[in-house]
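Weekly sync notes, structure subgroup
Attendees: PM, AL, DS (notes)

Item 1: joint prediction request from the bench team. They want all three components modeled as one assembly rather than separately. Inputs as received:
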Amino acid sequence: MSLLTFLMKKAFRNPVNIMPFLLAFILLGNAYYQYYTVMKRDNALAPAPYTPSYSISILNGDLTLLEEDDPYIPVIREQIEKEKVRTPEEENWQSYDLHQIAALKQSIRREAAVFGEESEIIPIMRRQIAYWDYMYRNDLPYEPYASYTNGIAFLCFVFDNILMPAVFAGMAYIIAGVFCSFHTDRIDQTILLPVHAGTKTVSEISFSMIAGILTSATVICFGFSMGCIFDGSGTIMRGIEVFNQDVQYVSLRSLLPQLFIITGCGLFFCTGLIRTVCIFISDAMTALGTSVVLLVGLCRLPDGFAVIADQAHWIPMTYLRPFAAVTGQLADRLKNGSVSLDKGIIILFAAGMALWIVSMISEHRRRGMK
Amino acid sequence: MIRYITLLMKKTVYNRNNLRMLLAAVLVIFGICLMNLEANGTDNYRFRMERDFRHNTTMAEHSADPGLKDLYQGFADRYGQILLKLDEQDYRAMYDVQLEILNEQMEMQGYASPALNTLQRDIEVIETLQREELLQDSYLYPVMGVPFLVQCFENLFPYLLTLLNCFIFTGICTARYKEKVNVNRILPMNRNLDDICTFAVCFLVSLCTFAVMSTFAYLCAGTVSGFSSFRYPYIFYGASGTSCGTVGDTVMPVIVLYLLYTAFSFLVTGILSKLLRRANAVFLVSAVILLGIGYMTQVIEPMRAYAHILPTSYYNSMYVASGFCRQYVYQNPNMSFLSGLKILGLSVTVLAAVFPVMNIREQ
Amino acid sequence: MLEVRNLSIKTRHLVFDDVSYTFEKGKLYGIVAVNGSGKTTLFRGLTGLIPTIQGSVLVEGMPVSRNRRRVFYYESFEWLDGNLSGMDYLVFVRDMWHSSVQIDEITALWDMDEYIRVPIRKYSLGMKQRLIIAMYLVADAEYMIMDEITNGLDEKNRSLLFQTLRSLCAENKMILISSHYKEDIQELCDVMLTIDSQKLREV
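Output from the run, pasted for the record:
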């Protein structure tokens, strides 16, 4: 406990360790500002909820746009009946959703007629149909496709794009700084501590995980708060695109447990890697550079090199993009069907364990060295 | 001044950490080359022609329609001829046959088919290969000198070289600060001269690193699978569509942009060193600025509209030179080699002017 | 006792060759040697900070790596983290070495109360050196190895240090200190040692 407390003091009494947080806040602030500006500009074009009478007339028109055997025809008819009994005070967006679907289906038919089924726009429109279908089935209020201004939406953006690499790089900075501060003149001062190697490793794991969780949580909370302040919290039922054989949207709520598990495993692995690097590299800047190159580099390298993408399912850093791993976007982007969430969790945890065991063995050997 | 530059060079070269980082980078290149060599058999020219030959033969055997049967058989025969010419290393004749196939496939497409653009591009590439009598390398796993070098320049060097530069520049620029005190003040030398010497050393080291890594990548692949040529075809993305040039056409723009970005990197790192005076912090912040902002511009759609005026968008000189950045990465039609030249040139000028101002304030 | 058996240490060259010596409790040992002779290397070898070619160091019959709580060594103020305060270090040492020494008494004795909670980066050389001395006292280890502990101390504090060391010896502790100057520690020490031709010998 004393060692853990000491390590925490070393990390959080160092004023320069605020640097990664400041950077993250600036980047997040800028990102949010960009999306917010676009949202404000587009708000002029934002629709108002349909009145019942308007809904009925629009939906009747939509019935003519669809083909005879389209599965949405009975759905639209059902909606028309619902609109007949709805009062104007009751706000409802489902008619709007169905109208979007009908319009997109008509656009797809036109596109296919001119450019054929290979047109690049058709898959994009199919994804939009899936999105509006999800909005309809869950009876969610209006939210434009690909909008990131409310709390939950911006949180998704942070998880998808900021967590790796920004947070993990920041974490490497703090943790490497602390561990390397014990190295002077190529001597590791901690050898002198009267603790068992195992106890010391446990303290180091605890410190690293706490630092990692605090860093991630701070960034996530900042992003969420910013969204909440300017555009409301959004809903946890927000539709997230999942990459299966067919395009599908599921609620964010259903993905949360997996998201937290893989993020936790990712943190565990990252801390193990950083600690192992610090054992072999005593200079803080070199340790930081090496950690960043390994973490961020190996995470991004499969995107550029097909030969690495083919083996990416074995590389733990591949799974440090939690959102992409959970939604299946990772397997889609890397064109590697072996990349999966379950495999990611196992590999991250196993690799993390292996690294911490290496750290413990190395510690034990250094303490008992002749 | 020469003595001081020599001292700084020695400090940099004898710093084992710098050598280790360079060695690690070289090992990464070697590792990727090795992996490409192993995987190349599943995507090289021979493999693709054999696959298409087998596919058309099978289709011909199983087609009920006599017209289609003849069509597939025709393709199969021509792929067979390609394979024969490949064995004889008669690349001209081989590409002649391939061009016949591609032209026929183009005629079969509808006037608005998206496949037309792809086929047209393929034809241009094959025509260039035919003219230069070069064997086409794998798209995914290049193993010849020049194509592998191109792959490294597109996907590895922008990040690796930038991080390496960041690391080395930070080491050099922050070495003068001991407990936040600039110990170089005791030197009988003007501070601006000190900065110029530091810049000279950093630039030289960066050039050497660039040369070492490029040469190693070129030799690593080339000694095993042949070097190919700098006249190897390369796709350029212009305002009016794609066109086929050669790799050699990218050499000058890539080098110029790289040099400018290196100068920009040094200036950013130098200014941060003067402000923060701690190696770790400078390294982290400069890495975030030099790579992070470029990355953010890619992922945040609204930012792409003004990616062309941010100097950090030009870190991938290969993609900027080819226009890939304009077309796909930032989807910003204003991005080009010329805009990179202007923006980086302006940024370097402005930041270079900040140095003397900061020195005066320090005094 | 702290037993050194056939110890050989090599850095760039062979520094110690087959050294054997026994340090007994209740005695104060002083090592005086020229610059670069290997005082710090010896201390690092004794405490297991660096690997040795051969030999062993035993504390009460057990390897020093298994008996860390009995030994305390803090090489220099360069090891200190400037962002922490002196009190952070004293509390940490007390907890790690399971000592029952009262920190307040130590800080009062050494006139450290004023600055003990201030970040170390604001300390002068003398303050840092006193902090290190305080750490030794708080650790209350049976075997204390001190590398040039008198550096940066004024006359008053040197005198206080020597008094303290003598009283520690009276409490049956083994203390090993080093210095460049024989006159500095000659009168204080029970046994004077020197490093000569890769051997440790009594003077």
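Discussion: The radius of gyration of chain B is 25 Å.
Action: AL to compare against the crosslinking data before next sync.
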